[in-house]
Amino acid sequence: MAERAIRIYETGGPEVMRHEELELPPPGPGEVRIRITAAGLNFRDTYERTGLYQVELPTGLGGEAAGVVTDVGEGVTGLAPGDRVAHATGPLGAYATAQNVPASCLVPVPGGVTDEAAAAVLLKGLTVWYLLRRTYPVQSGETVLFHAAAGGVGLIAGQWLRHLGVRAIGTVGSDDKAKLAIENGYQETILYRSLDVAKRVRELTDGAGVPVVYDSVGAETFENSLDCLRPRGLMVSFGNSSGPVTGVSLGILAAKGSLYVTRPTLGTYVADPEELRSAAAELFGLVESGVIDPNIGQRFPLADAADAHRALESRATTGSTVLIP
Q1: Domain that holds residue 235
Q2: 197 plus 81 within the same structural domain
């Protein structure tokens, strides 16, 4: 049976995605072929489809998948056919029935984690790992603000923050999403469509503000997020779901209390394969122990990937979404 994949030949809306046969060569030196059993859907995929993140065309889509090793290339050690693996830092092309990926980007999937869970949680969970454990290492007893609390990253963050003893305030777009966020570890939620987020954060922190804001929304929330911070607080801008942040005057940081801003990426934090495997092991350990629930809210057949993108971009999804080949 021929392999199949989602590919794009031009950037644009979901309609540019094509479900077609895939010509897949044998794995090259240092590569491994995996039979994909589940692929994760992430906002980053829409950035690559639209051209916000530049990619070389034509290209596959998707950077997160779980599956089984079926073949190994020259020089690969420590992996063999039949091994269960996942990746979230490899090349694009996870929206497929099979893929060749560098062995260095693969992590083992333990027995207590299903393939769907691994595909749903790895990229988002590694993102939460670097945000909470490296970019701003949160401490028990602190209060933080996390935007898009009911999204895939936000729900994992809420559970992890609860596990670490951190008081989490989350922004959400509806009462239903507020309920979901509370169930997943947030102590308070703010309906951003009807409330002034910064004002509400000040009320919830007795006027002090928070030491860190985690913001994946981007343009719409940037300045208001700065107003949520205490003096010398850190603004972590790690996404662009409302568009990229542009035209920022550094003087704003001085005027609002000698603030810090960072724009981190996962790739920088897990560039070392050993650190990648260590981070994944910590994440999967929390999944196995029940601390983190991947919250798979939607499943789409691979052929319906365009519909999955439409649902994600219209904010009609909750939790994680997986594509099933």
Answers
A1: 124-266
A2: no
